[in-house]
Amino acid sequence: MSKIPVLSVDLWYKNLWWTKMVAKILTTTLIACVVLCSCSNKGNNNTEAAEEEAADSLVAVEDTLHLFEEVAPPVAADELFDDFFFNFVADTRYQNQRISFPLKVKDGNAEFVLTNEDWHKYNRFKAQEFYSVIYEREGDMELQKDTSISEVSVEWVYLKDEYIERFNFHRINGKWMLTDIGKDETKKTPNGSFLHFYSQFVTDSVFQSESIVEPLKFVITSEDGEDMSETDEITVDEWFKMQSDMPIVNETLVNINYGQTCISQNRKNVLMKGVSNGLLMNFRFDKTGGKWKLIEIEN
């Protein structure tokens, strides 16, 4: 069976340009025909009605042309990965422009590719309320603002099944592109031990209560951008009452890896970042006596 040819991004753009040109020519021809036919059939006394009919036809064709419009992302969308990524998730047309098709996928020893058509079924990048960033040191968070980084991975961590699907992005010729996908068992990754703990923490209430330092430190940061903050302490019971309002996932953790340090087995931060909703909440875990504990929440 012959393979279906896959259009490259450049060829797709060229085809799109010719399609738009043909559509514009058809638009002009259609408008002219409508006006002439209307005038011919209804006479000079019905010119106004003919013009209205032509205008309606123009609107219908212009609506069709919108399907062929190129996506114009913000000029600075490729400066910071976060800016690019939120556009990538929000606009499927822009998304298709930023994937290197055929997309390579490596699952253990198996390798295969995804075509543009395959991607629509495989696509994980749909509406997400928030994403996470697992990091160890405060300085690692500066990577989010680093315009010189050229490689970022977005990790779909399937907590229950204990495996990771890693979507690798590279900046090529100044543009962020999704270049390949890799799958692996969670235990084989640098954060494997912590993720194994986290999976049990978010699904087992008894284990969770035993894994929280009491009283739990709760830091509330000022919303006006100042460095002022308030610190409070809560009990485990208060934690469970507040938990439903917190961004805690128990099935799939979507983590952005900017290249932050991943060497410590004794401290992890899980920063939850909202998408267009201003959410920012940090959960700090320490490993003491061989056991992970939630020691602090910062909102």
Structure commentary:
This protein has helices at 9-42, 47-65, 81-90, 92-97, 116-122, 192-201, 205-210, 236-242, and strands at residues 99-107, 110-114, 130-135, 151-158, 163-172, 175-185, 212-221, 229-234, 252-257, 267-274, 280-288, 291-298. It contains eight helices and twelve strands. Helices cover 33% and strands 32% of the residues. A hairpin with a 4-residue loop joins strand 4 and strand 5. The longest helix has 34 residues, at 9-42. It has 299 residues and is of the alpha+beta class. The chain starts with 8 loop residues before the first helix and ends with a strand.
Sheet with the most strands, sense and barrel status: 6 strands, mixed
What gyration radius follows from the Cα positions, in whole Å?
26 Å
Task: Summarize model confidence as the mean pLDDT.
Answer: 79
Distance between the termini: 57 Å
Number of strands: 12
Give descriptors for this structure:
299 residues, alpha+beta, six-stranded mixed β-sheet, 8 helices, 12 strands, disordered N terminus
Q: What are the SSEs and their pairings?
A:
Elements: H1 9-42, H2 47-65, H3 81-90, H4 92-97, E1 99-107, E2 110-114, H5 116-122, E3 130-135, E4 151-158, E5 163-172, E6 175-185, H6 192-201, H7 205-210, E7 212-221, E8 229-234, H8 236-242, E9 252-257, E10 267-274, E11 280-288, E12 291-298
Parallel strand pairs: 1-6, 7-12
Antiparallel strand pairs: 1-2, 3-10, 4-5, 4-9, 5-6, 7-8, 10-11, 11-12
Helix pairs in contact: 1-2
